[in-house]
Automatic annotation (TrEMBL):
Organism per entry: Elliptochloris bilobata
Record protein name field: Ubiquitin-like domain-containing protein
PANTHER family attached to this UniProt entry: PTHR48051, RAS SUPPRESSOR PROTEIN 1
Name of a matching Pfam family: LRR_8
Ranges of residues in domain Ubiquitin-like: 1-76
UniProt KW keywords: Leucine-rich repeat, Repeat
Amino acid sequence: MKLTVSHGKANHELDVSPNTTLHALKQLLEALTGALARSQKLICKGRVLGGGDLTVIGAKLKDGAKLMLLTSGSGALTQGQAAAAQVQREKAAAARRRASEALAQRASQQAMASSGAPAMLQARAAVWAKTGVIALRGEQPPLSQLPPAAMTITSTRVADFGNNALEALPAALGSLAALQRLRLSQNRLTVAGMPTGALAPLQHLVVLALDHNRLDALPVEVCALPRLQRLDVSANALATLPAAVSQLTSLRALVAGQNRLTALPPELGACTLLQELDARQNRLSELPAALGRLTHLQELLLDDNRLAAVPAALLQGCAALATLSLHSNPITMEALRASEGFQDFDARRCQKHDKQMTMRVMAPQGGFDEGADAVDWQRW
């Protein structure tokens, strides 16, 4: 039966047996509140509950009853007692987690069995439920759809479905609400194959890899992932990035190389925590000045585009920028050197590579990565 015990400003929801004694109930409350059992006074509807051996049902408490816990002045725990109580609380929390994981594992096994999944897949699912990691990368033969029973392992933290033949995602993917890392690289996914509700519920997602697919637009639900820190959409067919990318305020790395981008949205400047931006092998002819708002940006990779200039706002505003790669662009070394803010950037670049050489980290053959083009930078 369920009881609600108020103590100070806190309310504690308890699920106890009707045969639980009041003494045992007080010991449970001691672990939760730190108040010694001997100093506790339980009150229900103005009635003080007495008799330590009296059971909950014997005290005429009903399911959903609300109790008030009062303590006498001697109820404060000593330092040692407080530490012991904390240990008990941690043990109880660990026991609850183990019970929850076991329940999820049994549910997964039952779902696998009822779905008629092969015994081998059922055995793998048991491991997934235990570890919180679903590993279905590069299956043979390649998967054309995800196993429905795998979507029932709600405790999953990491899922790797890469290197398969997936053309669509099931809406049930959204049931993996605890997911933190999701790899969907090297499949055949399209925007049409991403139904509403497949990604939006994954509010704890930190890493999302959608590279090497067939996306011609960024799925709108991706921009609604508040904790996303790394997004890889390289090697697709993206022509633009949506303005809604500004909602990815936790983003640290955006990898969008090998697409068909003709411009980067100014709204990208709202992703102020961004540290790495990779837009190599696109069709960019200019950069928005709003990128100068990316004060944490350290690495900007723009090789193989159509850039003839770099905005002064970018070189001036991106105070952490130390790697700027512009190989195979129309921009000349002279034009880059003449850009306002270049001297500050160059000082950071030199400092970075001086440190690398001191640590005996070798630079790539043919010059450093920072360059207007490979030939000009070799003259440095």
